[in-house]
Design a protein that fits this description.
The protein is of the alpha/beta class. The chain has a single domain, classed as Purple Acid Phosphatase, chain A, domain 2 (4-Layer Sandwich). 34% of the residues lie in helices and 21% in strands. The protein contains 8 helices and 11 strands. The strands form 2 sheets. A 6-stranded mixed beta sheet has the order 4-3-2-1-10-11. The chain is globular. The structure holds manganese (II) ion.
């Protein structure tokens, strides 16, 4: 048994191979896990729980089956693209919604988990968008708009983000290094897991009198991947192909 962590799948109706990878993952690697944590950006974009598309229903049903049939506790911590996943989604699937950050008890060790986008403090444009979009009243107002209007706005946001991607400087998009030790000290943890940057790594470093670690999850593409943490604390990033076979 082990606890699994995934993030940044960016599932989208226009990429059915990604949806298939996720369904395979639930049926294979995640089937006998102690728990599954989804650390944000499961979806490319989520515009509200009401009137889910055919694609969204497939994902919801797969999660529901995974949680009820296989009895795997599954947690969802929202990312910058799917922070509108709400209570209805949670009720329909059985996932437990977590706030960012959360400290979990992982086989006796406190571990800080986050999506990670708020740590990329050099990306001022994203931080500006984040502040506005996460505002409670803005969120509420957006969710009262008709679905068709939300979809049009979502398409515009997606297009703007696609146009912006090639112009971005990778260093500026990464987590600001100085914030990590401060954050971990503040929460009194020696282990930290996050996603968002798409720069997978397991990094060990000294923090006070101990060896601390930060694990960055990978995004998904032609292959899927997950972090596997075993009860003895050992950690591995595992990649698998479209049949679920580890690479
Ligand atoms: Mn993200």
């Amino acid at each position: 048994m082990a606890t699994l962590f995934i993030s940044d799948l960016h599932l989208d109706a226009s990429h059915p191979q990604l949806t298939n990878l996720f369904l395979i993952f639930l049926k294979t690697h995640a089937k006998s896990a102690d728990a599954l944590y989804i650390l944000g950006d499961l979806f490319e974009i989520w515009l509200g729980d009401d009137e889910p598309s055919e694609f969204a229903v497939i994902i919801q049903q797969a999660l529901h089956e995974h949680i009820t049939t296989n009895q795997i506790p599954t947690y969802f911590l929202p990312g910058n693209r799917d922070f509108l996943v709400g209570k209805t989604f949670a009720q329909q699937t059985g996932i437990v919604l977590l706030s960012d950050p959360t400290i979990i008890n992982l086989y006796g060790e406190p571990v800080l988990i986050k999506h990670g986008d708020d740590l990329c403090t050099q990306d001022s444009r994203h931080q500006y968008f984040r502040r506005i979009s996460r505002n409670f009243l803005v969120k509420k107002a957006f969710l009262t708009l008709p679905c068709s209007i939300r979809e049009k706005m979502g398409a515009k946001i997606r297009l703007a983000s696609q146009k912006r991607s090639p112009t971005l400087i990778p260093e500026k998009m990464d987590v600001t290094p100085e914030v990590i030790p401060k954050l971990m000290q503040q929460h009194q943890v020696y282990q930290f897991i996050h996603g968002h940057t798409h720069q997978p790594a397991i990094i060990y470093f000294p923090l006070h009198d101990r060896l601390a670690n930060r694990i960055v999850l990978s995004d998904w593409g032609n292959n899927g991947n997950f972090l596997k943490v075993e009860p003895d604390g050992s950690k591995r990033l595992i990649y698998f192909d479209h049949t679920g076979k580890p690479l």
